[in-house]
Amino acid sequence: MSLKTLLPAGLLLLGGCAWFEQGPRELVAELASQPPKYGLQPGGSIDSLEIDSGTGLLTVRGWHMLTPETKRPELEIYANGAEAILSLDRLDRPDVATALENPDLMNSGFEIKVKLTPGTEVTNFCITFDDKHYGPRLLNPHSPDQVRCTMRD
Fold first, then answer.
1. How far apart are the C-alpha atoms of 29 and 146, rounded to whole Å?
2. Cβ–Cβ under 8 Å, residues 121 and 138
3. What whole-number distance in Å separates Cα of residue 77 and Cα of residue 71?
4. Residue 117 has what DSSP assignment?
5. Which of 7, 19, 112, 135 has its CA 20 to 30 A from that of 43?
6. Longest Cα–Cα distance in the chain
7. Are 149 and 35 in contact (CB under 8 A)?
8. Which CATH class is domain 24-141?
9. Per-residue pLDDT at 129
10. Domain boundaries, the chain
């Protein structure tokens, strides 16, 4: 085998090791301009949704079924009155990994803070994502009293 053949293979191996050591890719979130289309399957849960109408701060906690193989792990958020995503933190969810018997979901939890137009009553709230294995998914509200996602045709 020549040096020309070994060099690209060695660089590929080193690049793969560097990714492995980094762990899961950074989770990102973006605001959607409109609600998602009908037909999405469930892919996690919105465990809590708290709105401080005085400050216009919406705090959302839940979990998703994004797998490590997804090149760009991104949550798309739609909420009437949403102005900006202020923060997104990834959280460990050993309960989800155990319940679904999938260790890839160990750090599937998240907390998102969204800035709302002050005084907004949130009447439509959706979180969606597109995973390499599971495909396009929608996070479902955990309890019946939470704001639901009204999808479009």
1. 21
2. no
3. 19
4. -
5. 19
6. 69
7. yes
8. mainly beta
9. 95
10. 24-141
- Amino acid identity, residue 110? F
Residue 123 class from Cβ within 10 Å (0-12 exposed, 13-18 middle, 19+ buried)? exposed
Q: Where do runs of H (alpha helix) occur along the chain?
A: 3-22, 94-99
**pLDDT tens-digit series, residues 42-93:** 999 999 999 998 899 999 999 999 888 888 899 999 999 999 999 999 999 9
**Strand ranges inside 18-124, DSSP E:** 28-31, 41-52, 57-64, 74-79, 82-91, 109-116
**Angle formed at CA 50 by CA 44 and CA 135, multiple of 5 degrees:** 20
* 59 token code pair: 């705090």
Distance (Å, whole) CA 137 – CA 153: 16
